[in-house]
Amino acid sequence: MMKPAVLVTGGAKRIGAAICRAFGQAGWHVIIHYGRSQGAAQALADELPSAETRQCDLADQAASLNLVDDLAEQQENWRALINCAGVFNRDLADSLDPAVFDEAMRVNASTPVRMSQAYLAKARAPGGRRVIQLTDQKLLNPNPDFFSYTMSKHAVDAAIRMLAMAQTDPADRIYGLAPGAILASHDQTESEAEQSHRLNPLHRRTNASELADAALFLSEGWLASGQTLYIDSGQHLVPQPRDVLFLARE
Fold it and tell me: Does position 6 have pLDDT exceeding 70, yes or no?
């Protein structure tokens, strides 16, 4: 039987790479999307039993949809699309940066939604198809930092539920996967990350492998469509007035 295939956007590095490794080790054919990290993507592909790389600028929606069209034609069992890629640039509630906003809404919300729509319209997968959209624990624990980024994640969260309501094939599923602080981000040092990423009820750092395991579970399981899993050691349960990056510095 043909291996199930998964496309992971932003799969060359960081959380995306952890997800690719988990799927590769589980016997999937992994399609590693990258924007500019060709070397890292190819090195990762060489590690995995069955993998290939695909380049695409997700700010270019026409190119992104062409990527989906090409894979839908080539893959006979394209079981999952995992929208992991994103941009995380800072602006504030009292000073929205139009350029930051436009990029965040396009790359973090509009492009993954349009790719998901195209995937659900065209991809073939005998066992049902899975769309997994990475969001953020900020959905339940917002703060004014990274204002446009947070708005984009709220937008795509709403799309998850609407796509689930609109699905026509009962075998398909659309899910959200909401991480908390896992890897050092923005201009954070590793020592700052070690401190800030423990600001949760369990006082522990969530590992990228936990998120990868959750993605694999959603891709192979049968939870009701439209649900979101929070993989954040409970961070979303603790109101935080600022991003943990800044809380660790105060």
Answer: yes
d(C-alpha 68, C-alpha 120), whole Å: 10
Note the pLDDT of residue 46.
98
Where does the chain show beta strands of DSSP type E? Answer: 5-9, 29-34, 51-55, 78-83, 130-134, 173-179, 228-231
Q: How far is Cα 145 from Cα 246, in angstroms, rounded to an integer? A: 9
pLDDT value for 129? 97
Closest by Cα among 37, 33, 155, 158 to 102: 155
Residue whose C-alpha is closest to residue 180's, from 203, 160, 159: 203
- Give residues with Cβ within 8 angstroms of 144, minimum separation 6: 92, 93, 94, 242
Structure tokens at 143: 């703060």
| Nearest to 141, CA basis, from 233, 239, 231 | 239
Domains of the chain, by residue range, sit at 5-247
Answer for the pair 172, 130: CB distance below 8 angstroms, yes or no. Answer: yes
- Predicted TM-score (pTM) of the model is 0.95
**What pLDDT shows up at residue 196?**
74
What's the angle, vertex CA 198, arms to CA 109 and CA 242, rounded to 5?
55
The CATH class for the domain spanning 5-247 reads: alpha beta
Count CB atoms within 10 A of the CB of residue 121: 11
The answer to whether the beta carbons of residues 83 and 131 sit under 8 Å apart is yes
